[in-house]
Amino acid sequence: MTWTITPEPVDSPDAVALWRAYYTEVSDRWYLLHEGRTTDPAELEREIAADTGRDLAVLLVARYDGTAAGTAGVRLTSDAATAELTRVFLLPALRGTGGAARLVTAAEAAARDLGAGRMILDTRSDLVEARTLYARLGYAETPAHNTDPYAEHWFSKRLV
């Protein structure tokens, strides 16, 4: 079983399907934790349509034995020396196989290729797996770098 990771347009069928899976999971986890319900279907559709990913400098799609299995996005900030890691997602059935670490490492390489010397990201408290992954890969928790209402933890890593 092998992993491949390649850049892909954000509107490719695989990228769109993975974005839907990602957003559904993180939204449902938030609503279940805070309101005891899953995401309202109409709200889910609005939010998925509103965030097309067109602001990403690169979207990476990971495939496991040829099947689309995960994503990681890189967005350049207003300070071009800093990139933001976003949309890190791996299908639940493939978690624990090393795909997430490969995606983040590939996103770091893409950010370096774009001229960034630092990667930042934010995540939530309930996304324990993500926080563990980032710490394992050398990301340090930092003060807030944005005011995203869902962000509860901010991380940074030097890339050079």
From TrEMBL:
Residues 1-160 form the N-acetyltransferase domain. The keyword Acyltransferase applies. InterPro entries: Acyl_CoA_acyltransferase, Bact_Acetyltransf, GNAT_dom. The keyword Transferase applies. GO terms for molecular function: acyltransferase activity, transferring groups other than amino-acyl groups. Keywords: Acyltransferase, Transferase. SUPFAM superfamilies: Acyl-CoA N-acyltransferases (Nat). Pfam families: Acetyltransf_1 (PF00583). This is GNAT family N-acetyltransferase.
